[in-house]
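Minutes, methods subgroup
Present: GH (chair), OT, SY

1. OT presented the first of two proteins processed in the latest run. Sequence and structure tokens recorded below as shown on screen.
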Amino acid sequence: MKTALIIRHVPHEGVAGYRQPIEDAGYDVSRIDVTDPEFSTLDLREPDLLIMMGGPMGVYEQDRHPWISCQLRRLAQRLEADRPTLGVCFGAQMMASALGARVHPGPAKEVGFHPVQIHEHAACSPLRHLHEVPVLHWHGDTFTRPAGVEILASSRLYEHQAFRRGRNLLALQFHAEMGEDPRFDAWMEQWPEAVIEAGGCPRALRRAHDELGPGAVAAGRAAIADWLTDLN
């Protein structure tokens, strides 16, 4: 059976809604936390599919989180080998950095449900399922464009919301996996100030999650299912 490894940077940011299409595609899914002593010993080139999820840290905070530089070195080897890799939010920023881009704080927090604009040239890409679908955003960092990638989507605040390189590398800044996962409550409890900094209201964001979350997850699952089908 094909193997998929999820790297979890914090316990409350898991694969959530994306697990279903990954399992449906025939992958035996396992997970490891970056705090696990075994994490530093893994060869990240080995899994058939690697999925890196989000986290509140910045790629540039390597002094505070020494595992970031270790992970980046091994991730760069995987990307050089063009092994199928999906990055979400912080995971996407890690992919950008491993491809030579600069990750840095953005001009504003982007937190809440709203659509991304799918670029015209990406209209036939897996992201077509997300056209005009409000999805969850929760970040304040961004990145320069990595060399050799295709930018697939943007938002009003951030030009680089999604990119791919060929068929095997996909990076998503937004959270189309979130909308039905109870860990959303942990996000709200841990970072309520992020919602306020972005000009939002925690109560309104909870309502938006309840109303828009299922549709976001359905679109996200469809996008990931299409991407997995098209892997080299």
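2. SY then presented the second protein from the same run.
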Amino acid sequence: MKRRELQLEPKEGKQNMGAANKNEVPVKDAPHYSAPALEKGLDILELLHQSESALTQKEISARLNRSVSELYRMLNILVRRNYIANYADKFGPTTKLYKLSQVHPPVRRLLSAALPIMEEISREIDFGCDLRVYNAGSQTVLASVDAPGGLGFSVRTGSEIAVAPSASGRVLIAFQDSDTADLRLRESLKGLADSEIKSFRKDVHEVAVKGYAALQSRQYEGLYAISFPVLDINGYAIAALTVPMLPRIDSSRQASREDVISALRGAADRLSQING
């Protein structure tokens, strides 16, 4: 499997690639079009997906600083198209957007290949595992397999996870070209102190050299996470295959970290070959 080391620092004397395609219009020169109805619909969807609970029409209008009347028809259309649901006059998101994302051919191909492999290594090591992708400053869990014994730490499919505290977050940044890595760093580390960003950059570089990430959780006592990249044909990470290890305190035998690293490396290599 081809692995590509990351260069996080800006390159000196970088060649202007804009001349490679004279017909391509730079983003900064693209015209700015107005589509008020679409903007309102997207505002509603983003608000409801970010809210921890369903919201009334009045609460939605207040948070979006729009009148109730201008949102009424938009809410009805979104309910009719099953993007949101009305729960006793409170609105919340459905799973339609998540289902649509899985229909996208590359995602569907990745999932169909990943699930049997994930189930296989979970039986081998007796830990759960999951598959995560980068998503605009955070991570989305595409698939999750519980430990065969039914006990252990697991992450729910569809969960959104912060990038910075996790092993998988380091993987999803480490195995990218330098421009993509810098963009993801800026998106996912907003609000962190300069010292934390510097430390994270160092960790990411070490992951790129090592080939995977393994670290003690800063959120859950005793939890240890190991994550390997699933690479495309160019050696860039399209996903992170992750095993959260929660040690038992009884006399039951468990797979060691070395066992998990070996199994996870083999699984990630197989997935990379399938999707490469």
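Chair's summary of item 2: The first strand starts at residue 55 and ends at 56.
Next meeting: continue with the remaining queue.
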